[in-house]
Design a protein that fits this description.
Strand content of chain A: 5-15%
Organism (chains A, B): Halotalea alkalilenta
Oligomer: homodimer
Pfam families (chains A, B): LacI, Peripla_BP_3
Structural class of chain A: alpha/beta
Order of helices and strands of chain A: HHHHEHEHEEEHEHEHEHEEHEE
CATH superfamily of the largest domain in chain A: Response regulator
Helix content of chain A: 40-55%
GO molecular function, one term (chains A, B): transcription cis-regulatory region binding
Largest interface: A-B, 50 and 50 residues
Keywords (chains A, B): DNA-binding, Transcription, Transcription regulation
Radius of gyration of chain A: 26 Å
Protein name (chains A, B): LacI family transcriptional regulator
Number of helices of chain A: 11
Distance between the termini of chain A: 75 Å
DNA sequence: GTGAAAGCGCTAACAT
DNA sequence: ATGTTAGCGCTTTCAC
C-alpha cells in the first residue's frame, strides 16, 4: 500500500510536510505544496483512515440503534441520520436491535471499544446501562423518537400527548363518542403519552374513558389487523379507531373491510406517522404527520456537537412539530 | 483510558501476556490467566478497536450502497445484511446513494481509505470505476439485487426474466390479452430482464407486443399512480397491469379506483417484491415474492469469504428463487 | 517553512 | 510459559 512515506520520498520532502500539505495547505510554501500534491496524485495516495483514527482517537463513526429497520417510519429517520452524518463527515454504523435490551448493550459496546464515537438510540432505553463510564463524563449519546423521560443526554421527540389530543379532538369534532385506540407496546413512553392525550381530549369533551376500547399493539400491520378484529367483535363496537401508527391503521382498515363494513362509513380510522402508503391507502388515511427525517438530522447534529465539545448544559430537549392531516378515512358517524 | 499496559501492571505481567490471555487463553498458564482476567475486569478494560484495526489492517466494517433506504424492499435487504454481518463480527456502514454514481464513488472511497474492508452494492454499477486498484487484486465487493451483467465480483440476484414471464403467464392464463407494464428505470438491467420475460410470455401466447402498453417508472408509489393514469387514459386501456414493484402496483390500484373503476373487476393489477403492505392492500396484491433478507445474508457471506481469502474463481453468481403469490388483485377480464 | 522524532494501543516475532 | 521489542501510518510537538 502506498503510504505517506512513499509520497514524501517521491516529493523529496519529509512526511511531516506531506501531512501538513494535506491538512493545512496554507502553512507550506506554494512551491513545496505543488511538489507534494503532484507526488500525491502520482502515487495515487489515499490516507489510511485506520491510522488517522488511531492517531486522533476519533473514528468519525456513529452507531445507530434501531428497533426495526424495516419499519417504514424508522427507515425515514435513518435516511435523515445518514444524510446529516455524511454531510458532517461521519459514517453510520447501523444496528437492528429488535428492541432487545441485551442486543442494544452489545452494540453500545462499539462505542466503549472505540469502533464509533457516539450513539443514537431510537428507543427509550439507555444502552450504556451496564457499561462503565468515567464519572463526570457525558454519555456520548442522543435519544430520539421514543425518548426516556429522564434521558441522561440530549433528546428529540414529538409532543406525543398534544398530537394524540389533536387527533382525538378531530374525531370528537366529527361527532364520534365511542373512539377506540389501538396502542403501541404497553411500556413505551410513546404509548403512555399518546394515551394521555387521548384521555385529555375525551375528558375535555365529557366522554368517559372505557378501557374496553383500548387494545395493545406493536406498530405492525398484523397488529392493527388483529386488534381491529377484536374491537369490532365487541357488543357495542367503536365508531372510530385511533391507531398509534399508520401501519396499524392500514391493517385495521383492511380487517374492517373484510368484515363487510366500510371506512369511514361504518368506522372512521386514523393513524399516526404519515408514511407514504397512507396517501395511497383506500381510503387515504387521516393521520398525524411527523417530520421523520428531521428527527434524524436533529439527532445527528446534537450528537456531533456533543462529541466535538460543543455540547451544552443542561442537555437540549428538542420537540419537533406535528401536523394533523385529514384525509378520507375519517367522517361523521352514521 | 485504560489500556493494555495498565492491565499488565495490575496483573504483574507483560502486555504480551495480557494480549495472549485475551486472544488465545489456552497458551497461558491457568494461574496467570486467572490473574490477568481479574485485572481486566478490575480495570474495566475494553480493547481499543482502533488500535486493533490499525495493527491488523482490518476494520471489520462493510460499506453498503443503497439507492434508497426508505424503499421497503431495500429496507428488508438491509435487515438481512445487518443480521448476517453482525453474526460474523462485522459492522455495517450504511450509505444512501439515491442512485447517483458520483455519490457511490465517494462512498466507495471508504474502502480505499480503509474505513471499511469491503462493499456491497445494491445497484448495477461499479463504484470503484474511478478508483485505482493494484492489478491482479480482487475487488473487495459484492453486487446484489440489481446486478451488472459482467459484474467483476460475486453477485446475487433473482432470475428476473423467468419471474416476469411467470407473472405474465399468470395474467395470460386468466384470459388477459391487453397487458400493460409499468416498468422500472429504463436503463436498469432489472427493467430489461423483466421486460424480456414479459415479452417471452406474450410471444409464447401469440400476443403482439405493443409498446403503447409499457410505461416507465421508478418503483415508487407516485410513479405507479401517475403511470396508471396515463395507461387508463388510452383509447383502448389494458385489462391488466404488471407493475415492476409492489409500491407502484399499490399506487396504480389507487389511481384506478379513483377513476371509478374496480380492481380486479375492470383491471387486474400485479406487483413484484411481496412487501408486507401487499397482503393488506385492497384488494390484496398478486405479486412475485422475492427473498429480500436472503439477498442480504448471501451478499454478506460472499463478501466476507472474499475478504478473508476464501473467495473462489470464477466469482460465484448466485440466483435466488422467486415465488408467484396469487391474491385478489388479479382475475379474468370482464 | 521544514525536518526529526515521539508515540497513539496493540500484536507477533523473537528471545529467554 | 512469559517477557522484550519493533512497528503498523499518521500527526504533532519541538528544533532549527
Amino acid at each position: 500500500m502506498t503510504n505517506i512515506r512513499k509520497v514524501a520520498e517521491l516529493a523529496g520532502v519529509s512526511v511531516a510536510t506531506v501531512s501538513r500539505t494535506l491538512k493545512s495547505p496554507e502553512i507550506v510554501a506554494p512551491s513545496t505544496r505543488a511538489k507534494v500534491l503532484e507526488a500525491v496524485s502520482a502515487a495515487g495516495y489515499r490516507p489510511n483512515l485506520m491510522a488517522v483514527q488511531f492517531r486522533s482517537q476519533r473514528t468519525h463513526n456513529l452507531v445507530v440503534l434501531v428497533p426495526a429497520i424495516a419499519n417504514v417510519f424508522f427507515a425515514r429517520v435513518i435516511s435523515g441520520i445518514q444524510a446529516a452524518a455524511q454531510q458532517q463527515g461521519y459514517g453510520v454504523l447501523l444496528c437492528n436491535t429488535l428492541g432487545d435490551e441485551e442486543t442494544e448493550e452489545r452494540y453500545a459496546g462499539m462505542v466503549t471499544t472505540r469502533k464509533a464515537d457516539g450513539l443514537i438510540q431510537l428507543r427509550a432505553s439507555n444502552p450504556f446501562g451496564a457499561h462503565v463510564f468515567p464519572a463526570g463524563t457525558v454519555l456520548p449519546m442522543v435519544n430520539a423518537c421514543e425518548v426516556l423521560d429522564d434521558a441522561p443526554c440530549p433528546s428529540v421527540k414529538l409532543d406525543n400527548r398534544a398530537a394524540a389530543r389533536t387527533l382525538t379532538e378531530h374525531l370528537i369534532g366529527l361527532g364520534h363518542r365511542r373512539i377506540a385506540m389501538i396502542q403501541g407496546p404497553r411500556r413505551s413512553p410513546l404509548t403512555r403519552d399518546r394515551v394521555a392525550g387521548y384521555r385529555d381530549a375525551l375528558e375535555a369533551a365529557g366522554i368517559a374513558f372505557d378501557d374496553r376500547l383500548v387494545h395493545p399493539g406493536d406498530f405492525t400491520l398484523d397488529a392493527g389487523f388483529e386488534a381491529a378484529g377484536s374491537l369490532m367483535a365487541r357488543g357495542r363496537p367503536p365508531t372510530a379507531i385511533f391507531c398509534e401508527s399508520d401501519e396499524m391503521a392500514i391493517g385495521a382498515m383492511q380487517r374492517i373491510k373484510r368484515l363487510g363494513l366500510s371506512v369511514p362509513g361504518d368506522v372512521s380510522v386514523a393513524g399516526f406517522d404519515d408514511i407514504a402508503f397512507s396517501s395511497y391507502s383506500d381510503p387515504p388515511l387521516t393521520t398525524i404527520a411527523q417530520p421523520a427525517e428531521a428527527f434524524g438530522t436533529q439527532a445527528v447534529t446534537m450528537l456531533i456537537d456533543l462529541l466535538e465539545g460543543r455540547g451544552t448544559t443542561p442537555a437540549p430537549r428538542v420537540v419537533l412539530p406535528y401536523e394533523l392531516v385529514v384525509r378520507g378515512s375519517t367522517s361523521p358517524p352514521r
